[in-house]
Design goal:
Rossmann fold, four-stranded antiparallel β-sheet, 9 helices, about 35% helix, globular, ATP hydrolysis activity, membrane, ABC_transporter-like_ATP-bd, Glutamine transport ATP-binding protein GlnQ, ATP binding
Length: about 240
């Protein structure tokens, strides 16, 4: 598999607080990589840096061999190649589900409304939300809102899908339905980088697991190695929290 996204030596600080300290990470086409680590380890900041929502202090980011961290690059053009889903849905409350899903397709990618809506209905139908397409987000459950947010992110056929702890704001009974959608996307060949605390899901779905601690990558490798037989004491200490 060819490398699609590559970050080299990424540093990011907020004031005096260093959040990322020389992070190297890569993502191949059609690969699923799970980012694990404690809250505050830098996972969310790394994702936001990768699609240029946060400027980096040092290092380089390449998307399909283009240096997208070059300050001369059009950040909006780059972001249009990503799909991103965050912890708190971020659906526009004044728009219907259908309008939320089609917004980027129509405004950013200039897709005709009829074509954008046809694609949106097809995607919503696949996940059982077509009947709610005309509803506003406040009429949906948390799990339905998060699934709608994922559909919005994939409606533009992004090259890379970034998922940031997308189940952390959900009630436990709703987590499964969102993870099942991600599993289906992975099975369909999506390229996904996801920050998650769902270790069982990472073990079953990810091709590679990356453990981030205090802004540095401590260990990475196949799930069977990192999650089952980690080499590093810091990795073992982190994973012990989930088995205690």
């Amino acid at each position: 598999m060819s490398t699609l996204l590559r970050a080299e030596g990424i540093h990011k600080s907020f004031g005096e607080r260093a959040v990322l300290r020389g992070v190297d990470v890569d993502l191949a086409r059609h690969q699923v990589v799970a980012l694990i680590g404690a809250s505050g380890s830098g996972k969310s900041t790394l994702l936001r840096c990768l699609n240029l929502l946060e400027p980096i202090d040092d290092g380089q980011i390449f998307l399909d061999d283009e240096d997208i961290s070059d300050p001369r690059v059009d950040a909006n053009r780059v972001r249009a190649r990503f799909g991103a889903v965050f912890q708190s849905y971020n659906l526009f409350p004044h728009l219907s589900v259908l309008d939320n899903v089609t917004l980027a397709s129509r405004v950013v990618h200039r897709m005709p409304r009829r074509e954008a809506e046809a694609r949106a209905f097809d995607l919503l139908e696949r996940i059982g939300l077509a009947g709610l397409a005309r509803q506003h987000p406040d009429r949906l459950s948390g799990g339905q809102q998060q699934r709608a947010a994922i559909v919005r992110a994939i409606a533009t056929d992004p090259e890379v899908l970034l998922l940031d702890e997308i189940t952390s704001a959900l009630d436990p009974e709703l987590v499964g339905e969102v993870l099942e959608l991600v599993r289906r996307l992975a099975d369909d060949g999506a390229t996904i980088l996801m920050a998650t605390h769902e270790m069982a899901f990472a073990r079953d779905v990810a091709d590679r697991v990356v453990f981030l601690d205090a802004g540095t990558i401590v260990e990475q490798g196949p799930p069977a190695e990192v999650l089952v037989a980690p080499r590093e004491p810091r990795t073992r200490a982190f994973l012990a929290r989930f088995t205690a």
